[in-house]
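A quick aside before the break. I want you to see a complete sequence-to-structure record at least once, exactly as it would be stored in a machine-readable document. Don't worry about memorizing anything.
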Amino acid sequence: MYQLDPTRERHLLWLLALTQFTLIMDFMVMMPLGPQIMVAFAIGPAAFATVVSTFSWCAGLSGLFAATYIDRFDRRRLMLFMYALFALSNLACALAPSFAWLLLARAFAGIASGVIGSLVLTIIGDVIPAQRRGAATGTVMTAFSLAAVAGVPAGVLLGAHFGWASSFYLLALLSVLIWVACSKLVPPLREHLASTPAPISQTLPVLWHLGSQPNHLRAFLLTFTMMVSHMMVIPFIAPTLVANHSVRPDQLAWIYMAGGAATFFTSRAIGRLSDRYGKRLMFCVIGAISIAPILFLTHLPNLPFVAILAFFPIFMIAMSGRMIPMQALLTTVPDPARRGAFMSLNSATQSLGTGCGAWLGGLMLASTADGHITGYGTNGWVAAAIAVFGLFWVYAVKQARVADAHGEAGGKAAVG
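That is the input. The structure line, written in tokens, reads:
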């Protein structure tokens, strides 16, 4: 386990949060920009859903492949390489002259994102003791709030005034700035290289062994189902509000801003509560609470814009809040020496769940002749049912019984 002084640890966590901010913004901003992108490339909702899913599926596959090599490299060097690819992919997306080009650019952005997401969680596991990982994960998860309160609204406003591509020019610029900060602030992380990795010829059998362990499979199933539950609802919020509830595209920025502002203040608090009362308990409490907002949003009655604006923070707090204790719990599932590979597999599972959720959700929706979207209520019921399953399944996921020098322990001694 690495040891950093408190100031450097805090700076590192916020830098990881900013890194996650760009990954999340890159994915999230596509959703409110959907109407503009569909017009620009003359595509329908199904093709647009393919763009969203392609990013997630490529992120999942790249994360899966990364599990074969992520523990063979200095975390810092690998982070810098993949983040440079991420920046270039966003520039290519902004310059896309055709739908095929856009699809390819989104695929490469997903490839980079899958590896970076694995590295962020792996670095947390490397430098933060288990008893403080809930709070650390909460800090990094504020990236979701920052993306919602600043990134997505900025992207929507830029898209409204300068075209959809301007959002991806902004992402490319931000990525360059954060890459420079990473090169200066992320320390060399090589301690895991002290143990000789398996030869390349044995990598896949080792990976298969890691991924086929019953407890790991239970953890991956929890991740997959919760992301499916998320993505059967979230990608279709903006199109449904515009098509069914007369919300103007420029008003979407205010909705996402309100939700992001609320979660910015709750993410770290939820992380601290997870450390204090147990990660499983907090996951179950917030997961149960999240069911009501899911069903209300997907069966939304005709309400004034102010009422929708007031409700959206509740939805965002519940949806993002249930992920914090779950992610903190998952960092304790593998043995420390295999944490990088495990988190890569988990990141791959998360991305595949994201893509499958968006794809399945899109299949269940339809457009009427007057442009209204139907079937969103069914999405809500399915998402709620999957969330209920997760409340029970989380107790099947066990922590590692290996202890490190900082008291990281699983089994009955661990918190969570």
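Two observations worth writing down. The longest helix spans residues 133-162. Confidence is low (pLDDT under 50) at residues 402-416. We'll return to this after the break.
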